[in-house]
Design goal:
The protein is built from 11 helices and 11 strands. By secondary structure, the protein is an alpha+beta fold. The strands form 3 sheets. It has a 5-stranded antiparallel sheet. A 3-stranded antiparallel sheet has the order 1-3-2. Bound molecules: adenosine-5'-triphosphate and magnesium ion. It catalyses: L-threonyl-[protein] + ATP = O-phospho-L-threonyl-[protein] + ADP + H(+); L-seryl-[protein] + ATP = O-phospho-L-seryl-[protein] + ADP + H(+).
Length: 284
Amino acid sequence: MRLSLAEKASLVGAFDYIVLKTLYSLRGKSEFVSFNSLRKKLDVKNDEELKISLLKLNELKLISKDPTEFSFRLTFSGLDILGIKMLYLNRILYKLAEIIGEGKESIVYHGYDFDNNRIVTKFHRVGTDSYKKIKFRKDLEKKDWLSITVENAKREFDALECIRREGGYVPKPLGVQYNAVAMEHINGKELYKKADTVNLKEILEKILETMRIAYNICNITHGDLSPYNILIDESGTPFLIDWPQATDSEEILKRDLINIATFFKKHGIEVDVHKMFDYVRGVS
Ligand SMILES: Nc1ncnc2c1ncn2[C@@H]1O[C@H](COP(=O)(O)OP(=O)(O)OP(=O)(O)O)[C@@H](O)[C@H]1O
Ligand SMILES: [Mg+2]
Protein backbone atom coordinates (compact mmCIF):
# COMPACT_ATOMS: atom_id res chain seq x y z
CA MET A 1 0.00 0.00 0.00
CA ARG A 2 1.28 3.47 -0.89
CA LEU A 3 1.12 5.79 2.08
CA SER A 4 0.46 9.50 1.68
CA LEU A 5 2.96 12.05 2.94
CA ALA A 6 0.63 12.96 5.83
CA GLU A 7 0.32 9.28 6.80
CA LYS A 8 4.08 8.86 6.69
CA ALA A 9 4.51 11.99 8.84
CA SER A 10 2.17 10.53 11.46
CA LEU A 11 4.29 7.36 11.66
CA VAL A 12 7.54 9.21 12.33
CA GLY A 13 8.27 9.20 16.06
CA ALA A 14 10.49 11.55 18.04
CA PHE A 15 13.64 9.45 17.67
CA ASP A 16 13.00 8.78 13.94
CA TYR A 17 12.71 12.52 13.46
CA ILE A 18 16.08 13.08 15.15
CA VAL A 19 17.61 10.44 12.85
CA LEU A 20 16.21 12.23 9.77
CA LYS A 21 17.45 15.58 11.06
CA THR A 22 20.91 14.17 11.70
CA LEU A 23 21.09 12.62 8.22
CA TYR A 24 20.25 16.06 6.85
CA SER A 25 22.95 17.72 8.94
CA LEU A 26 25.55 15.19 7.68
CA ARG A 27 24.58 15.68 4.01
CA GLY A 28 27.08 16.67 1.42
CA LYS A 29 30.26 15.10 2.82
CA SER A 30 29.53 11.97 0.83
CA GLU A 31 26.31 10.77 -0.73
CA PHE A 32 25.58 8.17 1.95
CA VAL A 33 26.21 8.52 5.69
CA SER A 34 27.67 5.43 7.34
CA PHE A 35 25.96 3.80 10.32
CA ASN A 36 29.06 4.57 12.40
CA SER A 37 29.09 8.30 11.64
CA LEU A 38 25.40 8.45 12.42
CA ARG A 39 25.89 6.56 15.67
CA LYS A 40 28.71 8.88 16.71
CA LYS A 41 26.85 12.07 15.85
CA LEU A 42 23.72 10.90 17.64
CA ASP A 43 25.71 9.57 20.59
CA VAL A 44 23.35 6.60 20.93
CA LYS A 45 23.81 4.09 23.73
CA ASN A 46 21.70 1.46 22.05
CA ASP A 47 22.60 0.40 18.50
CA GLU A 48 19.40 -1.64 18.21
CA GLU A 49 17.15 1.39 18.60
CA LEU A 50 19.01 3.15 15.81
CA LYS A 51 18.89 0.07 13.56
CA ILE A 52 15.14 -0.33 14.08
CA SER A 53 14.56 3.33 13.28
CA LEU A 54 16.70 3.13 10.11
CA LEU A 55 14.84 0.04 8.92
CA LYS A 56 11.51 1.71 9.50
CA LEU A 57 12.56 4.95 7.74
CA ASN A 58 13.92 2.89 4.85
CA GLU A 59 10.64 1.00 4.61
CA LEU A 60 8.75 4.30 4.53
CA LYS A 61 11.17 5.46 1.78
CA LEU A 62 12.15 8.49 3.83
CA ILE A 63 15.76 7.34 3.59
CA SER A 64 17.52 5.05 1.17
CA LYS A 65 20.29 2.56 1.81
CA ASP A 66 23.52 2.28 -0.10
CA PRO A 67 23.22 -0.94 -2.15
CA THR A 68 26.48 -2.37 -0.78
CA GLU A 69 27.23 -0.64 2.55
CA PHE A 70 25.26 -0.10 5.77
CA SER A 71 25.01 3.61 4.91
CA PHE A 72 22.01 5.85 4.35
CA ARG A 73 20.87 9.09 2.79
CA LEU A 74 17.77 11.21 3.15
CA THR A 75 15.28 11.03 0.25
CA PHE A 76 13.17 13.99 -0.93
CA SER A 77 10.23 12.47 0.98
CA GLY A 78 12.40 12.45 4.10
CA LEU A 79 13.15 16.11 3.54
CA ASP A 80 9.39 16.76 3.12
CA ILE A 81 8.79 15.21 6.56
CA LEU A 82 11.33 17.58 8.17
CA GLY A 83 9.57 20.51 6.48
CA ILE A 84 6.11 19.37 7.60
CA LYS A 85 7.21 18.84 11.18
CA MET A 86 8.86 22.28 11.47
CA LEU A 87 5.91 24.06 9.82
CA TYR A 88 3.69 22.31 12.36
CA LEU A 89 5.91 23.25 15.32
CA ASN A 90 5.89 26.86 14.10
CA ARG A 91 2.07 26.70 14.03
CA ILE A 92 1.87 27.38 10.30
CA LEU A 93 0.64 24.06 8.91
CA TYR A 94 -1.84 22.06 10.97
CA LYS A 95 -2.71 19.39 8.44
CA LEU A 96 -1.83 18.38 4.87
CA ALA A 97 -4.66 17.52 2.46
CA GLU A 98 -4.69 16.50 -1.21
CA ILE A 99 -2.12 17.12 -3.94
CA ILE A 100 -3.10 20.01 -6.24
CA GLY A 101 -0.15 20.08 -8.58
CA GLU A 102 2.82 17.93 -9.40
CA GLY A 103 5.35 19.91 -11.41
CA LYS A 104 8.80 19.12 -12.72
CA GLU A 105 10.39 20.53 -9.61
CA SER A 106 7.80 20.36 -6.89
CA ILE A 107 4.73 18.78 -5.41
CA VAL A 108 2.05 21.21 -4.27
CA TYR A 109 -0.45 20.27 -1.53
CA HIS A 110 -3.57 21.78 -0.10
CA GLY A 111 -3.60 21.94 3.66
CA TYR A 112 -5.05 23.72 6.65
CA ASP A 113 -3.58 26.18 9.13
CA PHE A 114 -4.35 26.17 12.87
CA ASP A 115 -7.52 28.25 12.29
CA ASN A 116 -8.78 25.81 9.68
CA ASN A 117 -8.05 28.16 6.74
CA ARG A 118 -7.03 26.57 3.47
CA ILE A 119 -3.35 27.04 2.70
CA VAL A 120 -0.90 25.67 0.17
CA THR A 121 2.40 23.92 0.88
CA LYS A 122 4.88 23.52 -1.93
CA PHE A 123 7.60 20.89 -1.49
CA HIS A 124 10.55 21.58 -3.72
CA ARG A 125 12.46 18.82 -5.49
CA VAL A 126 15.35 19.40 -7.81
CA GLY A 127 15.03 16.95 -10.69
CA THR A 128 17.23 15.93 -13.58
CA ASP A 129 15.84 18.69 -15.82
CA SER A 130 17.09 21.43 -13.60
CA TYR A 131 20.34 19.53 -13.19
CA LYS A 132 20.94 20.01 -16.90
CA LYS A 133 20.29 23.72 -16.53
CA ILE A 134 22.59 24.26 -13.57
CA LYS A 135 25.27 21.73 -14.36
CA PHE A 136 27.62 24.33 -15.76
CA ARG A 137 27.27 26.84 -12.98
CA LYS A 138 30.54 26.73 -11.05
CA ASP A 139 29.03 27.86 -7.74
CA LEU A 140 26.69 24.88 -7.72
CA GLU A 141 29.17 22.26 -8.81
CA LYS A 142 30.05 21.09 -5.33
CA LYS A 143 26.58 21.20 -3.83
CA ASP A 144 24.38 18.26 -3.04
CA TRP A 145 20.74 17.95 -4.14
CA LEU A 146 19.27 18.43 -0.71
CA SER A 147 21.09 21.75 -0.25
CA ILE A 148 20.16 23.01 -3.72
CA THR A 149 16.53 22.08 -3.08
CA VAL A 150 16.45 23.84 0.29
CA GLU A 151 18.04 26.93 -1.29
CA ASN A 152 15.38 26.97 -4.00
CA ALA A 153 12.63 26.92 -1.38
CA LYS A 154 14.29 29.80 0.48
CA ARG A 155 14.72 31.76 -2.75
CA GLU A 156 11.04 31.34 -3.55
CA PHE A 157 9.98 32.35 -0.04
CA ASP A 158 12.24 35.44 -0.04
CA ALA A 159 10.89 36.53 -3.44
CA LEU A 160 7.27 36.15 -2.29
CA GLU A 161 7.98 37.95 0.95
CA CYS A 162 9.66 40.98 -0.61
CA ILE A 163 7.18 41.39 -3.48
CA ARG A 164 4.15 40.95 -1.26
CA ARG A 165 5.49 43.39 1.35
CA GLU A 166 5.98 45.99 -1.36
CA GLY A 167 2.43 45.58 -2.69
CA GLY A 168 2.94 43.17 -5.62
CA TYR A 169 0.45 40.48 -6.62
CA VAL A 170 1.83 37.21 -5.27
CA PRO A 171 0.38 34.72 -2.75
CA LYS A 172 1.13 35.74 0.83
CA PRO A 173 4.04 33.59 2.08
CA LEU A 174 3.44 32.00 5.49
CA GLY A 175 6.67 30.18 6.23
CA VAL A 176 9.60 28.20 4.88
CA GLN A 177 11.22 25.14 6.46
CA TYR A 178 13.72 22.91 4.65
CA ASN A 179 12.22 22.37 1.14
CA ALA A 180 8.67 23.37 2.13
CA VAL A 181 7.14 26.76 1.40
CA ALA A 182 3.72 27.46 2.94
CA MET A 183 1.62 30.18 1.36
CA GLU A 184 -1.85 31.58 0.95
CA HIS A 185 -4.17 29.48 -1.17
CA ILE A 186 -5.37 31.30 -4.29
CA ASN A 187 -8.80 30.14 -5.30
CA GLY A 188 -8.48 30.40 -9.05
CA LYS A 189 -7.15 29.06 -12.31
CA GLU A 190 -4.08 29.62 -14.45
CA LEU A 191 -4.26 32.61 -16.82
CA TYR A 192 -4.04 30.48 -19.96
CA LYS A 193 -7.34 28.82 -18.98
CA LYS A 194 -9.11 32.11 -18.25
CA ALA A 195 -7.97 34.33 -21.12
CA ASP A 196 -11.42 34.59 -22.70
CA THR A 197 -13.36 35.50 -19.57
CA VAL A 198 -11.27 38.17 -17.83
CA ASN A 199 -10.23 41.79 -18.30
CA LEU A 200 -6.83 41.21 -19.88
CA LYS A 201 -5.79 44.89 -19.87
CA GLU A 202 -6.23 45.18 -16.12
CA ILE A 203 -4.45 41.89 -15.60
CA LEU A 204 -1.48 42.98 -17.71
CA GLU A 205 -1.20 46.21 -15.72
CA LYS A 206 -1.07 44.28 -12.45
CA ILE A 207 1.48 41.81 -13.81
CA LEU A 208 3.75 44.66 -14.93
CA GLU A 209 3.29 46.48 -11.63
CA THR A 210 4.38 43.30 -9.83
CA MET A 211 7.38 42.82 -12.12
CA ARG A 212 8.41 46.43 -11.55
CA ILE A 213 8.30 45.97 -7.77
CA ALA A 214 10.21 42.69 -8.13
CA TYR A 215 12.93 44.16 -10.34
CA ASN A 216 13.31 47.63 -8.83
CA ILE A 217 12.84 46.96 -5.14
CA CYS A 218 13.53 43.26 -4.67
CA ASN A 219 16.22 43.05 -7.41
CA ILE A 220 14.74 39.98 -9.07
CA THR A 221 12.92 38.86 -12.13
CA HIS A 222 10.78 35.72 -12.18
CA GLY A 223 12.81 33.62 -14.62
CA ASP A 224 9.99 31.38 -15.83
CA LEU A 225 7.11 33.77 -16.29
CA SER A 226 4.28 32.47 -18.44
CA PRO A 227 0.46 32.21 -18.35
CA TYR A 228 0.99 28.87 -16.58
CA ASN A 229 2.58 30.59 -13.59
CA ILE A 230 -0.09 33.26 -13.16
CA LEU A 231 -3.24 32.38 -11.22
CA ILE A 232 -6.41 34.45 -11.63
CA ASP A 233 -8.65 34.47 -8.56
CA GLU A 234 -12.44 34.80 -8.52
CA SER A 235 -12.30 38.61 -8.54
CA GLY A 236 -10.08 38.58 -11.63
CA THR A 237 -6.86 39.52 -9.79
CA PRO A 238 -3.65 37.91 -11.05
CA PHE A 239 -1.13 36.26 -8.71
CA LEU A 240 2.35 35.47 -9.96
CA ILE A 241 3.47 32.11 -8.55
CA ASP A 242 6.49 29.80 -8.82
CA TRP A 243 9.57 31.92 -7.99
CA PRO A 244 12.42 29.47 -7.12
CA GLN A 245 14.47 30.42 -10.18
CA ALA A 246 14.29 34.18 -9.51
CA THR A 247 17.45 35.98 -10.66
CA ASP A 248 18.66 39.56 -11.10
CA SER A 249 19.55 39.09 -14.79
CA GLU A 250 18.35 41.80 -17.17
CA GLU A 251 18.50 39.34 -20.03
CA ILE A 252 16.10 37.01 -18.25
CA LEU A 253 13.85 39.94 -17.41
CA LYS A 254 13.61 40.60 -21.14
CA ARG A 255 12.76 36.96 -21.80
CA ASP A 256 10.04 37.04 -19.12
CA LEU A 257 8.56 40.16 -20.72
CA ILE A 258 8.64 38.69 -24.21
CA ASN A 259 6.78 35.59 -22.94
CA ILE A 260 4.10 37.77 -21.40
CA ALA A 261 3.88 40.09 -24.42
CA THR A 262 3.47 37.13 -26.79
CA PHE A 263 0.52 35.80 -24.80
CA PHE A 264 -1.29 39.14 -24.57
CA LYS A 265 -0.66 39.94 -28.26
CA LYS A 266 -2.17 36.60 -29.20
CA HIS A 267 -5.28 37.65 -27.31
CA GLY A 268 -5.62 40.98 -29.06
CA ILE A 269 -3.97 43.31 -26.53
CA GLU A 270 -1.54 45.88 -27.92
CA VAL A 271 1.83 45.67 -26.22
CA ASP A 272 5.20 47.32 -26.72
CA VAL A 273 8.00 45.22 -25.25
CA HIS A 274 10.45 48.17 -25.18
CA LYS A 275 8.01 50.30 -23.20
CA MET A 276 7.32 47.38 -20.86
CA PHE A 277 11.05 46.87 -20.40
CA ASP A 278 11.61 50.54 -19.48
CA TYR A 279 8.62 50.60 -17.14
CA VAL A 280 9.68 47.46 -15.24
CA ARG A 281 13.28 48.71 -14.93
CA GLY A 282 11.96 52.02 -13.56
CA VAL A 283 13.33 54.01 -16.51
CA SER A 284 9.91 55.38 -17.39
N1 LIG B 1 -0.67 29.58 -3.85
C1 LIG B 1 -1.32 28.73 -4.62
N2 LIG B 1 -2.68 28.67 -4.61
C2 LIG B 1 -3.36 27.79 -5.39
N3 LIG B 1 -2.77 26.92 -6.24
C3 LIG B 1 -1.42 26.92 -6.30
C4 LIG B 1 -0.63 27.82 -5.51
N4 LIG B 1 0.67 27.59 -5.80
C5 LIG B 1 0.69 26.60 -6.72
N5 LIG B 1 -0.55 26.20 -7.05
C6 LIG B 1 -0.93 25.14 -8.03
O1 LIG B 1 0.13 24.21 -8.17
C7 LIG B 1 0.65 24.22 -9.52
C8 LIG B 1 2.16 24.07 -9.50
O2 LIG B 1 2.75 25.13 -8.78
P1 LIG B 1 4.09 25.83 -9.26
O3 LIG B 1 3.92 26.38 -10.62
O4 LIG B 1 4.50 26.80 -8.18
O5 LIG B 1 5.10 24.59 -9.23
P2 LIG B 1 6.02 23.92 -10.37
O6 LIG B 1 6.78 22.83 -9.74
O7 LIG B 1 6.80 24.93 -11.09
O8 LIG B 1 5.03 23.31 -11.35
P3 LIG B 1 5.19 23.31 -12.94
O9 LIG B 1 6.42 22.49 -13.26
O10 LIG B 1 3.90 22.69 -13.35
O11 LIG B 1 5.36 24.76 -13.34
C9 LIG B 1 0.18 25.54 -10.09
O12 LIG B 1 0.04 25.50 -11.47
C10 LIG B 1 -1.16 25.74 -9.40
O13 LIG B 1 -2.17 25.01 -10.04
MG1 LIG C 1 4.82 26.39 -12.41
